[in-house]
Amino acid sequence: MGSSTLILVLALAASPANPIPKAEVERQNTVFAAQWNDDFVWHFDKLPTKGSVPKDRIPYSGYIYLDKWGGTEEVMSKYDGAFNRGFPATSWEEVDNTEGKKKAGGLFFRQEDNGWFGHCNGWAAAAIRHAEPQHSVRVNGVVFTPADIKGLLAEVYVYNDIEMLAGENVSLNPGTLHAILANWIGRGSHPIGMDADPDEEKWNYPVYSFASGFAKRSPGKIEVKTNILFAKDTEDEEFDNSPRNHDMKSFHYMLYVDSQGKIVGGYYFDDSDRIDFVWVPLRPKQAGEEGNENGNPYLDVSQVLDLWRKSVTRNARRQWLIVDLAEKDRAVEVADPSQILPRRIRIVPPNRTAESTDLFRIVR
């Protein structure tokens, strides 16, 4: 065997079978720096193996407002009664429930309605960005209950812009998934959205907790089992007080790390769950503006956000720290300006130097 052939063989042996694309690495680094003003960590031993949002930040379970059952038409009619002449927001929603989605397509939708279209991504985004409404609010003689306000929030976010983290139109690399969970939830205590179904249908949920067990199989390979907890929807109706439904997915994968200990790729085992993509909701824009071109033009986003603000306590708003915080919340309600995101992340203790944890007893 010649020297050039030997070098090639050694290079192939050292390369992961399923590497994280360079563009994907750069995207994580760029997005995280923009939202957190901190570096995205790839070094396995410097990442926490578990993390969760604070108990009072767990996303609420909400209704997904399936199009075939009228979407948000009922709460839109209440909104029209308080803010509009006639029923333009309701009429727009009626049209959107039929032909609108066929024209829209896009990330969360497909070109033909097979009965699963709805507002699951709208609810997931709202539950990530907002404390659950607690009190009814009266405006112009109309009473909006907490359930009504949650319905309005689901409509606000259904077409709103998101930050796609990974998985869009490509297979979600387990190395990227592990690093995102450990950075966003583990280091930042920030929930993220996921599409739980890797097939054509799109079912979006807020992920708020993860825990991993691992065993180092060789200097460059680490076997990992990871559980995630996510909020489930309420299935058939919106509640004033969320029942806090949740579910779990379990992943089993091998990670590849380089000579510096950074995650560079990996593959899933056959017994692993899979998901499609992960994302983070951004600040809501008014319909027609860039980032919400397809939203309901007769629904005033600022009015809905004011309803939400009046329905929760000032303390809840102070504690509800999220990326891309709305200016009104940033300027008025946050008690400690140093806590406004982006900020330096509270670094969670890493895995230390242990060679393994209990791979088969992962804490939920």
Straight-line distance between termini: 51 Å
Morphology call: elongated
Helix content: 25-40%
Tell me how many strands there are.
10
Structural class: alpha+beta
Rounded to an integer in angstroms, the radius of gyration calculated over CA atoms is: 22 Å
How many domains? The number is 1
Number of helices: 10
- Determine the mean pLDDT: 85
- Biggest sheet character: 8 strands, antiparallel
Unreliable parts: 3-14, 102-107, 340-344, 351-356
Beta content comes to: 15-25%
Q: What's this entry about, in short?
A:
This protein has 364 residues and is of the alpha+beta class. The protein has 10 helices and 10 strands.
How would you describe this protein?
With 364 residues, the chain is α+β, with helices and mostly antiparallel strands. The chain has one domain. 32% of the residues lie in helices and 18% in strands. It is built from 10 helices and 10 strands. The strands form 2 sheets. Strands 1, 4, 5, 6, 7, 8, 9 and 10 form an 8-stranded antiparallel β-sheet that branches. The chain has a two-stranded antiparallel ribbon with strand order 2-3. A hairpin with a 5-residue loop joins strand 8 and strand 9. Helix 3 packs across helix 6. The longest helix is centred in the N-terminal third of the chain and has 17 residues. The radius of gyration is 22 Å and the shape is elongated. The N terminus is likely disordered.
